[in-house]
Every structure is written in C-alpha cells, then in structure tokens.
Design a protein that fits this description.
MetI-like fold, mainly alpha, single chain, 11 helices, flat
C-alpha cells in the first residue's frame, strides 16, 4: 500500500506541475500578445466614456424615418442568404457523396474534394467578395456568389461527416443483392442522409444571414452596403436602424429554422 501511495502522490505531483506549467505558459502568451498588440487597460477604461457618448447620442435611438428605404436592402439580404443556401446545398449535397469515406468511389476523389472544400471554407467570405467585386462589380450578384462559395465549402464537410455516420448495414445488404452504385445511394444512403441534409442546410441559412452583412459592407449589396454607406456619410442613426433590422432578421431566421427542425427532423 505504501508503494502505491507513493506512486499516486508522484502522479498527482506530476499533474500539478503540468497544470502550473500550462498556466504559466498561458499567462506568458497573454502578456506577450498584449504587448504585441499595444493593449492597454488604461486606454480601454478611458475610452468607455467616449464609447457611451457615441452609443447614446450619435447611434441611438434608431431613425425610424429611414425604415422605408431599408426595406429593399433587407429583402436583398434575405434573398442572397436563401439563394446561396439553396444553390450551395444542392452542389455540396452532390459532391459530398464523393467526399465521404462511406460513399466515395475512390480515396483519391475523396481527398481531392476534401481539399477543395477546405480551400473554399477557410478563405474568409470577405476575401471572396473583394475578389468577385473586382470581376463583376458591386451588387447583389457578388454577395450571392460569395455566400455560395463559402456555403459549398462548409456544407461539403458537414454533409460528408453525416454520410460517414450512416448505418452501413443497409448499404452492405444492397451491395450483396447486386445493386448498382447509384441504386445503393438512392435506396440506402439518401433516406438516412435526408434529416442531416435538412438540418445542416437550415444552419447554413442562419450563417448566410449573418455573413451577408459583412459581404454587403465590401460591395455585396443588402443591409451591409446600407450600413457602410451610412457610416461613410456619418448617418449613424440610420446605421442603427439598419443594424436593428439585421438583428430582427437573424432572430426571425433562427426561430423559423428551429421550428422547421422540430417538425421535420
């Protein structure tokens, strides 16, 4: 018992030393980052007064008179988000069949599509928008295309991971019965995949609504473009109204998608 007790104490001491080392390294990293970014607590607290003054005097309350002019940009934001979700989910749904280990006809195709989706997913949507603005100019088309690209990249991975979690018993049974590749996909894979397809597509719609604001601020149209225009013209109360509309659209989208998930999935 004494030997086991000593070993237990050594293990606890080693874990305690590891925890202390981790905390020291974390603290050192925080200090190093604060110095590198010029972070200052005094500047932070010193700016609270100016921030509060801007918030309550310049930004609030929202200018209700600007609401009619923001209706069309708000609709554009919804249109872009929905179209990007629909097109992106169709493209990603098809490509994910070849990107999942359980359904891909060859490992090389799987790896290639995974790399393809990673590139589309990991390049920020604002970068895609800037690149597309240089090619197509300003407007809703650019915003929609940017959201489609990022949606495809994200959904391929999400769909592929869902396909890799299906029950392979049905798949093997159809293969043993001599079913073709596409018969297996249609009769054994898609029925299991459909709930995940709907769930991830609805989640992508929520993501697109949020991202469309950022896209619009660099020329992609919608409420983001209205916000950026208001900031440039120092019309902060109109900006406040546009931000309020973004919040309403985001909350309404989340409520709607949650209800759909509850009824369908």
């Amino acid at each position: 018992m004494g030997i086991k007790g000593e070993q237990l104490q050594k293990i606890r001491k080693a874990k305690r030393n590891q925890l202390i080392l981790f905390l020291v390294l974390l603290l050192g990293l925080c200090i190093w980052s604060a110095v590198g970014t010029g972070f200052s607590g005094s500047a932070l607290f010193g700016g609270i007064g100016d921030g509060a003054r801007f918030l309550f005097e310049d930004l609030l309350p929202p200018d209700a008179a600007s609401f009619p002019g923001l209706i069309q940009p708000a609709l554009d934001t919804i249109y872009m988000s929905f179209v990007a979700m629909f097109i992106g989910s169709i493209i990603a749904g098809f490509l994910s069949i070849f990107a999942a280990a359980t359904t891909s006809p060859h490992p090389a195709i799987q790896i290639g599509l995974r790399a393809f989706s990673a590139m589309f997913r990991n390049i920020p949507v604002i970068i895609w928008t800037i690149l597309l603005v240089a090619s197509f100019g300003l407007g809703n088309l650019v915003g929609t295309l940017s959201l489609v690209i990022v949606s495809v990249g994200m959904l391929i991975r999400c769909y592929a991971e869902s396909l890799e979690e299906i029950d392979m018993g049905q798949v093997e049974a159809l293969r043993a019965a001599g079913a073709s590749y596409w018969q297996v996909i249609g009769q054994a894979v898609l029925p299991q995949f459909l709930p995940s397809f709907v769930g991830w597509s609805l989640f992508n719609l929520e993501v697109n609504v949020r991202a469309s604001t950022i896209v619009g601020m660099v020329g992609g149209g919608g409420l983001g473009f209205a916000i950026q225009s208001g900031i440039k013209l120092f019309q902060y109360k109109e900006v406040s109204m546009a931000v309020l509309l973004v919040l309403v659209i985001v909350l309404a989208t989340e409520f709607m998608t949650n209800r759909i998930r509850e009824r369908i999935i």
